[in-house]
Design goal:
With 309 residues, this protein is an alpha+beta fold. It has two domains: 43 residues; 263 residues, Roll (Carbonic Anhydrase II), CATH 3.10.200.10. It is built from seven helices and 14 strands. The strands form three sheets. A ten-stranded mixed beta sheet has the order 2-14-12-13-10-9-7-5-4-11. Strand 4 and strand 5 form a beta hairpin. The longest helix is centred in the C-terminal third of the chain and has 22 residues. It starts with a helix and ends with a helix.
Length: 309
Amino acid sequence: MKCLISFYLLTLILHLSSSADWCYQEQANNDVHCIGPELWKEVNAQCGGTRQSPVNIATKKTVLDERLTPFNFTGYQNLFNGTIKNNGHTVEVDVSQNIMAAVSGGNLGDTYKPLQFHFHWGTDAGAGSEHTIDGEQYPMELHLVHIKQRYNSLEDALNDPSGVAALGFFIEESNSTNTNYDQLIQALKSIQNADNITAIRNISLSQFILSEDKLTKYYRYNGSLTTPNCSEAVVWTVFENPIPLSREQLLAFSSQLKLSDGNPMVGVFRPVQSRNGRLVYRSSGPAVLASALLLLTSIITAFSLSHLN
């Protein structure tokens, strides 16, 4: 009897996998024809791998890595014209053809170029980030996706265990409006339905993230894409300092956008995955520079005093 039940369950899963799209848990709760995160491995076997993302970052268990130095951002200030699309699961800004920019340093081991950035969020400005810090979720998370400069496409990069570098930024609720996001949020009105796309002009990558002096504290681990095919080819960097958006700005995403099935686009995040023994490393941030300056000051002072005596 148990074998018969298992056979029918497997048949159902295979049928769903061939006839339905993957979706997030909130959708899966309301639609038996879409495949939620727990069954993504039936959509693509890689989603059941041992190096999946996102993860919970338990700060006391992170390992200090002095090699995690500040990044070198090139061209992030350059203005460009891009497109923003409702892809049925989130909003995505394509920058691959429109900007000469790159990131290196931070022990990435290579130079990476940006492809796109997108967001994950919850419901009514509630918990919605993919990564968590000590079990706590932020309202949103921004992912800026890069591939190694020598690759021509994401598909090429996914064949390399470190072909993709994803920069993750938490987004928190603020009492004031972040004017750098005004144009993007205004554009949401034009892409309310799945597959809608519109132009977004004269923007820069730097306006959507923090200033470089606030990007020295971060976490690093080896993981995957957080949507199917869940390819385990991603070097993850998750920054400690969050980006501020007002409550009204946060609500613009969940109140205006619709999923592929026409329902509100809410709860668009993958639950945290097991680390399976992976270590999460942390940078020393500005403390290294501060310590070096303090040491240099002490040496200069001692040298000066010795000459005065």
